[in-house]
Amino acid sequence: MNPPWLGAETAKLKAAFAAGRFPHALLIHEAPGAGGDWLAGWIARMVLCSQARTQGSGESATSPCEHCRSCQRAAQGQHPDLMRVQPLESSTQIRIEQVRELSQELSLTAHQGGYKVGIVSPADTMNRFSANALLKTLEEPTKATVLILVATQPSRLPATILSRCQRVRVRAPERAEAVAWLEATRGPGDWDRVLGVLGVAPMLAVAADPAAVTEIASEVRRGLEEAAAGQGDPVATAERWARSELPLRLSCVENWLTDRIRGRLGAGSFFTEVRAGAHPRGHADGLDWRQLFELLDTVRDLRSSFDAPINRGLALESLLRSLDARRLN
Ligand SMILES: [Zn+2]
Asked: Residue 167: which H helix or E strand, with range?
């Protein structure tokens, strides 16, 4: 089932393709896990599909049929005229050699006599050398080529690249719409809770095991509440968390802290407290505003430093200890 929240975008792209005014280069700016890669794959199948081009007229003529050999090979990543570039396993960046190879391929005639498609994702992992190399292809596009960049943070790309791509925005769906799609695609499950843990990122959720995600979420919540009550063993908990599913656990910690901050906003005490510059104690969890926001910053730093050689266990242990307000106050 196609993600319904992308319906408006696919309709616009189909119309542009049918009218023969499809852009050479697209930048799909996606909310995390909202379906940028799905849309890139759909576009590739649309322009490569061998049925669509020979069917009658009208809008449906340019939808990928999903059954022909071209569509199937494209879906399996085995179409000779479709190239995907992503960071190599050992790297967090797309390298210049990869981009040069893509440019070279795109400059050749299509194997199947139709279009050639290149997908760069996540495009915001290109370093400045790779981006520069890509610029040449964008400036002098070969006929019948489509280059698709997918990025959650396009601002990381040079303006010279951005200005040469037509932008397509992929927003996260409403939570209820995402839950309905997950149920239709994967079957019943506690998808609402899964999205609560992962954020409204249906394309991440669809690849997850809902039971495992909710179990980890419960375990993390228990660990945090014990730590806040000055109970439990922060060393053992930190070691266990650092060993497995750390990104997911950190999302849970971030959600837990955000819930606490939102809870106070709901109680209407935020402005009073901020204006007074006070850090009153005596809340159920004992932490004041400043401490909650500091903890949130710590968690976000930890999330963004997965590649850095930091001692995760120690950082987590310190985070758990600082939840125990009595140590601080
Ligand atoms: Zn097809």
From this structure: strand 166-170
